[in-house]
Amino acid sequence: xxxxxxxxxRNKEEFKPIKGKKVGLYTCGPTVYNFAxxxxxRTYIFEDLLRRTLEKNGYVxxxxxxxxxxxxxxxxxxxxxxxxxxxxxxxxxxxxxxADEYTKAFQDNMADLNLHTPDIWCKATxxxxxxxxxxxxxxxxxxxxxxxxxxxxxxxxxxxYGKMAKLDIAGLQEGARIDKGEKKNxxxxxxxxxxxxxxxRQMEWDSPWGKGFPGWxxxxxxxxxxxxxxxFDIHCGGIDHIPVHHTNEIAQNxxxxxxxxxxxxxxxxxxxxxxxxxxxxxxxxxxxQALKEKGYDPLAYRYFAVSSxxxxxxxxxxxxxxxAVTALNKLRHLMTIWDESTEQDEAIMEKFMMTMxxxxxxxxxxxxxxxxxxxxxxxxxxxxxxxxxxxxxLGLGLQSWFDIEETQQAEVPPDITELVQARETARAAKEWNxxxxxxxxxxxxxxxxxxxxxGSRIYKA
Length: 461
Ligand code: AMP
Ligand code: ZN
Prior knowledge:
Elements: E1 3-6, E2 11-14, E3 22-27, H1 38-56, E4 60-67, H2 83-91, H3 95-112, E5 120-123, H4 128-140, E6 144-146, E7 150-153, H5 169-175, E8 189-194, E9 212-214, H6 216-228, E10 232-238, H7 242-257, E11 262-268, E12 271-273, E13 276-277, H8 288-293, H9 298-306, E14 314-316, H10 318-338, H11 346-356, H12 362-374, H13 380-394, H14 398-410, H15 414-428, H16 432-444, E15 447-452, E16 455-460
Parallel strand pairs: 3-4, 3-10, 4-5, 10-11, 12-14
Antiparallel strand pairs: 1-2, 6-7, 7-8, 8-9, 12-13, 15-16
Helix pairs in contact: 1-9, 2-3, 4-6, 4-7, 6-7, 9-10, 10-13, 10-14, 11-12, 12-13, 15-16
Bound molecules: adenosine monophosphate and zinc ion.
The site of zinc ion has 3 residues, from loops.
């Protein structure tokens, strides 16, 4: 039985899907004005673990992820510049160019981290009509008003506003009296913003209210309901989305369709550096590319992320990442020793899944995995099969690594294999000098030998 922590109730709840074995999952995607940082990627790793856990439980997941390519302003209070337009200026390119480039970079990050591709990718700019239609619906139901710079959502009219985030609405209104401009209430937010009169935006569209662009929260409401229906199972994001983005999505959805639209809201905690949130605007961020340039395998970053629970803060350090590299290499090494996979150990696998099903308790699941590797009373083939089965959920890419390794083994040319065998014979006869000479010869031809308890393993250097 799968239990997930639902931000709506602040409790772990038994997961009950709406439609049998089908699960609708919406995860807020990147704003493509810059590279994702490894903090953002931590959130996507958590969502991938969720998806894999659902699938291991037999659910068929329909996963939708958006690409924010318009409307996300530098300021949460609907002021400031559009991040996309600012990014384009910074790079002296068009918004469309940077959107394409950073979408591609993000998809490369996903592949490097072994994240499943969503079933549906959707871009905000491809869904302008759906967003306009949603604003019309919200307006018809009496929750929208127009000011000189846009169409706004009346958060005070919507009586459950801020419920998930447990916002102190009265306090917020009191505290922000001065900044709200033409907004009726400080928690009101833009559904549609008008293009500035003195500046030509690169992205703008006609609407019944005037030329402009959609508010950031609108795209996720419009696209999640378009692809998953007006009542779906799970919606995820990072915890920073609780008080604003997801609060506003809930308000828009429910104002438009008049009922609850999402059953489970799941949120991942922050990645920190020096105990401070990693953030693009803070300038303290690292990209996956930067880690790769330092020689790190992206899957070691995934291992690092997986070893902590998604609802705990995680502080990034290179020492911790080095620890993850060692652990991942050890797993890979064990696989080469165990070599031939047989059937998995059902009892251990069951224990592992019970742990994952307890709100994705990956630190415990990883501990179960390591305990299994150390057991002496089960045969190596079984260990290998169990490890690979666990990895369907943890997603460390062990099967692919193993397959590549096997292929490389198979591709060792015959003259090298002969040298390896000659060296084995020399070692067996304790002719250490000859063995060393042979190793040197092998290494000169670009191959390395690793001596294991099961004999020598050869690989391309
Ligand atoms: P953005 O591209 O800014 O919309 O963010 C993409 C995702 O990363 C969102 O789900 C955010 O909540 C999440 N996020 C932002 N900063 C962090 C962080 N330091 N650690 C983990 N997740 C984060
Ligand atoms: Zn979103």
